[in-house]
Design a protein that fits this description.
eight-stranded mixed beta sheet; 8 strands; 9 helices; Rossmann fold
Amino acid sequence: MPSLKANILNWYLKWSFKRYPLHLMDPKKLRAGADRMAPKAPPAGITIEKRDDGAVKGEWYRNENAEPGNLIFYLHGGGYVFGSAKSHRAVTFALAAASKADVFSLNYRMAPEHPFPAAVDDALEAYRWLLDQGREPQRIIVAGDSAGGGLALALMLAARDHGLPMPAGAVLYSPWTDLATSGASLSYNEKTDVMFKKIYIVEGAKTYLGGANPQAPLASPLYGDLSGLPPVQTFTSDNEILHSDSVRLHERLGAAGVMSQLVIEKGLAHVWPIFVGKIPEADRSVAQSADFICKQFGAADAS
């Protein structure tokens, strides 16, 4: 059962966030609103370096206690329409601290101004840039939530197909993996999801795709060839409408011979780890992620 704090958060989201027709709202207002939720300052030991120049834009979170070379490459969620490195600082700060790693959080181009495949192109360019900076792939974990989780998978597929080395692993929070919106939970969890209605997902997919094939693997990694990917850890709540996206991903990763760990929580909000520091379930999930991340880095040390 969810904690008292999680239940209070669920109630708040249901009677605030879910009531707004996200697919009809001005993207600029959504982006500004998301950024207002960001922590005002990093925790002790973490410093922020903004990167606003050049083709690759985002924010570095430098951890003074980071193990040398360890890096989390984070891709924020927001339906490919809103969100930013800034809006997701709570979870990226926490991952940096718990994993003893630096974090680079990417500001990729978003729809409707920049539809698919702009986000994938930006993520791939940033990954190339990190490698060109001397970052070792076995010391990079790719992480993301919701749309950013799907983008993390798309990045790895694109990197593999371009002959680039794979990162050490991936951590995905409630990933959006199927823009064809065929998951059964879109219907059977519509009432229990505290943040979204089915129409938000269906129309949001159209906005990002801009007429592209919804089953294109770089838009919907669920339909891609998943072989050759590194270990993947996926988190999902049993009551969210994107639950099927995570369950089917776990099944297809296993069928492709990829080590896959699926963590299913009960009765929590979509991408609950972003509420780290506010609900105990988020703190627990970030700790589980850090344990997974450190194990992948440890495997690099042992090899």
